[in-house]
Specification:
The chain has 242 residues and is an alpha/beta fold. It is built from ten helices and six strands; from the N terminus they run αβααβαβαββαααβαα.
C-alpha cells in the first residue's frame, strides 16, 4: 500500500487533468505470497480504500484495477468473491476487472462473464497478451461500462509461459516490441471500442526493454491523439529518452 505522503506527492506533481489507475493490493487478489500484514480482510480493504479515497478526493482517480492471477478460474467460488468485492468492499469506486485465466472467456462462458461484469457495473479490461494456454486470455473487445481499459502486455509467448522460473522472469515476460502492423491492428480495434463507450484508458505494460513508451507514442499518432497540459517530464518520457 502506498503511504499517504507518497500519494500527496504524486497528486501534487501531476497536472490537474492527470488521472491514476491504481492497482488493487495483492492480498485482495490472491497474489500475496508472504504473510498478510493485516489481521482481517476488512482491515486490509479499509486500508486500501483510504489510499483510493486520497486519489479520488483530489479528483485524480480514474479507476481501481483488480487484476486476478492465472489460477483464478471461472468457478462459483470466484464469482462470489468478485461479487463480494463490489457489493461489500469497493461498491462506490470505479473498478476494472482483469482476468488472466482463459476459462472466463470460453465459448460457453464468455457471454455470461461479460453480462456479469456489466450487471455489477465493473469496467471490463481488454488485454493484448501472448496466447499461451489457460494462463492467458484472448483479446475480447467487449465494453461493460462507460469506461474501458485496454492493457497491452506484449506477445512474448516464451516469457509468459516460463514466468517465475528464473530470477529475472519479469524482464523476460514483458520483453516485447510491437511492430507497425501489430500497432495498426490494435489501433483499429481500439477505434471500434471507442464507438461503444465514453472513455478508453490504454496502458502499455511491455516495459522491461523500454519499448512501452515508444509503442505508446506510435499508437498515439495512429489514433490522432494530442494531449494538452502534460508536464515536461511526461513529454520527455513519451519521447523515448531514458
Amino acid at each position: 500500500m502506498p503511504s499517504q505522503q507518497n500519494i500527496e506527492k504524486w497528486v501534487h506533481e501531476t497536472p490537474d487533468s492527470f488521472e491514476f489507475i491504481i492497482k488493487a493490493y495483492q492480498g485482495m487478489t490472491g497474489h500475496l505470497r508472504d504473510d498478510n500484514p493485516y489481521e482481517t480482510r476488512d482491515e486490509m480493504f479499509e486500508a486500501f480504500r483510504q489510499c483510493a479515497n486520497a486519489f479520488r478526493s483530489a479528483g485524480k482517480l480514474a479507476m481501481i484495477l483488480v487484476q486476478f492471477p492465472p489460477w483464478f478460474d471461472c468457478s462459483a467460488k470466484n464469482v462470489q468473491y468478485i461479487r463480494y468485492v463490489k457489493q461489500q468492499q469497493l461498491g462506490d469506486f470505479p473498478v476494472a476487472i482483469e482476468f488472466r485465466n482463459r476459462t472466463w472467456y470460453s465459448n460457453d462462458r464468455k457471454h455470461e462473464t461479460i453480462n456479469f461484469l456489466a450487471e455489477l457495473g465493473f469496467i471490463h479490461t481488454v488485454c493484448d497478451e501472448p496466447q499461451a494456454g489457460v494462463g492467458s486470455v484472448p483479446f475480447v473487445a467487449e465494453v461493460t461500462n462507460d469506461k474501458a481499459l485496454v492493457r497491452i502486455h506484449g506477445r512474448n509467448v516464451y516469457g509468459w509461459r516460463n514466468s517465475g522460473s528464473t530470477e529475472n522472469w519479469r524482464e523476460v515476460r514483458f520483453l516485447y516490441d510491437y511492430n507497425e502492423e501489430e500497432l495498426t491492428d490494435l489501433a483499429n480495434k481500439i477505434k471500434n471500442l471507442e464507438k461503444r463507450c465514453k472513455d478508453i484508458y490504454i496502458l502499455f505494460n511491455n516495459n522491461s526493454g523500454h519499448h512501452a513508451a515508444n509503442n505508446a507514442k506510435t499508437l498515439q499518432q495512429m489514433l490522432e491523439i494530442d494531449f494538452d497540459g502534460l508536464s515536461p517530464k511526461q513529454l520527455d518520457l513519451f519521447g523515448g529518452e531514458f
